[in-house]
Amino acid sequence: MKIPLSNALLDEKDIYEVLKVLKSKRLALGPYMKKFEEMVKNYVDTKYAVAVSSGTAALHLILKSLDFGENDILLTSSFTFISSANVALYEKGNVHFVDIEPDTLNVSLNALEEEIIKTKKKNSRLFFMGVDIFGHPLDWDKILDICQKYSVEIIEDSCEALGSEYKGKKCGTFGQAGAFAFYPNKQITTGEGGIIVTNNEKIYQITKAMRNQGRTSSKWLSHEVIGYNYRIDEMSSALGYSQMKKIDKIIEMRNKAAKNYEKLLTFLEIPVIKSYVTKMSWFVYVVKLPKGTDINKVIDYMAKNEIETRNYFAPIHLQPVYKKLGWKEGMLPITEEISKRTLAIPFYSEITFEEQEKVAFYLKKALELFS
Fold first, then answer.
1. Shortest CA distance to 89 belongs to which of 68, 111, 65?
2. 41, 64, 170, 186: which one is catalytic?
3. Distance (Å, rounded) from C-alpha 89 to C-alpha 74?
4. Peptide bond before 182: cis, by omega within 30 degrees of 0?
5. CA 334, CA 225: separation in Å to the nearest integer?
6. DSSP code of 343?
7. What pLDDT does 221 receive?
8. pLDDT number for residue 122
């Protein structure tokens, strides 16, 4: 029996809602998009939500709505999915990567402030893309203090953190706007899709127009601003609407799975949850292998035993496109050292304890062989 890295939780209710859309033949810009937006904004407690085609589209539109452009600088983590940085390049801006904390794997507060101070001398506008990595919130009170001190705009990349809470407040609500993503390995899925949440009416209005080819009125061929085809379709919206009905159940199931791993994986470093996290919504489960472990041999060994694992994440600043911009090894030492030994293991809502036992058994044997 193969154990996959991730697996979406889908049931008959999800199928029923999607079939309703297909039978209606209203496949885009229909009622389900609005119902999905309402559910998400009410869940995270914001005034507005704009559903789009992906988490990347959500981040891009937020940056665009803030007039981010050439000569502006986006500060973010290199230990995240590449779209957190790429969206700045879409607008011909600059990316400055910040090193991470070795325990939470979120951006280091000290490194962030140091980079801001150093970068302020360039007289560029500064933006911070705060990533709640793997669902673990940043220390937002301290982040807000730093960014307010230096007049840095905040965008929250909560694409992996739907449902997580920092001191009782939902992730996605700490910056000018936040973004969530719904790829099949996320807490809930729409297949492909994302959403913007914000309390800023201007951001809401402009991102809503830009997702739909720049339309700001009901006239279909009237385009007042430059826009994109970043719409989410009705089938995806219907699935998201249905999935949101069980978000609390999904988070509970994933928390149970995480606690099982905590009991089973006593032989290696498991994820750290800080005291300021009042609710953890797990995206993936990433462990740290001992220093010196051959991670590729571990991955191959697990695969031979029908267990899918993956190195998570490779640093963005060492990707070829960013090396061409001048980034190189040694610039972010903690990110580079940690990324060599982070391993995502099978984790999803319906994973069984027996499957987790198998993962733990073979992972222990792999470490005995390759550490």
1. 68
2. 186
3. 9
4. no
5. 42
6. E
7. 75
8. 78
Provide the 3-class DSSP secondary structure of residue 45. Answer: coil
**Structure confidence at residue 1 (pLDDT):** 80
Summarised one tens digit per residue, pLDDT across range 240-252 is: 999 999 999 999 9
Nearest by Cα to 324 from 127, 124, 129, 89: 89
**DSSP 3-state of 145:** helix
Where the chain has pLDDT below 70, the residues are 219
pLDDT of residue 261: 99
Q: Is the distance from CB of 277 to CB of 137 less than 8 angstroms?
A: yes
First to last CA, the chain: 26
CA atoms within 13 A on the CB side of 163: 22
Alpha carbon of 230 to those of 8, 29, 100, 210, 340: distances in Å?
23, 12, 31, 8, 35
The strand pairing partners of 94, in sequence order, are: 73
Side chain identity, residue 161: A
* Domains with residue ranges and CATH for the chain: 12-244 (3.40.640.10), 247-370 (3.90.1150.10)
Q: Which residues on neighbouring strands pair with residue 165, listed in sequence order?
A: 170, 279
Active site includes 186? Answer: yes
